[in-house]
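Let us practice reading a record.
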Amino acid sequence: GRGVMRFANGNVYDGEWKAGKREGRGVMRFADGEVYDGEWKAGLPEGRGVYRYADDDVYEGEFKAGTREGRGVYRLANGDVYEGEFKAGKQEGRGVMRYVDGDVYDGEWKAGEREGRG
């Protein structure tokens, strides 16, 4: 079913529930200003969603077990934009980073760093 949960720490979840856990579509507004709007499974972000961070960075893409995993677009508050693969919350695999100064890196990433051929 659907419901709203207000947590003692100030977080608010508005969305679907199953067996007492966040499951399906929902929005979590965190007390620090961060917002996750997307799919949930077993109480964690999983599937497609958008996460807006307190520092104004925005990630739109796939999540697994609460972290960035799969394909996505990460827009940094400074104007840099990464589009590509993520693993364990960091850029990993093939991806393109377009820097605000006009530089572009198109190549492999590992643990959030440029790696190998670009």
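A brief commentary: The CA atoms of residues 96 and 106 lie 4 Å apart.
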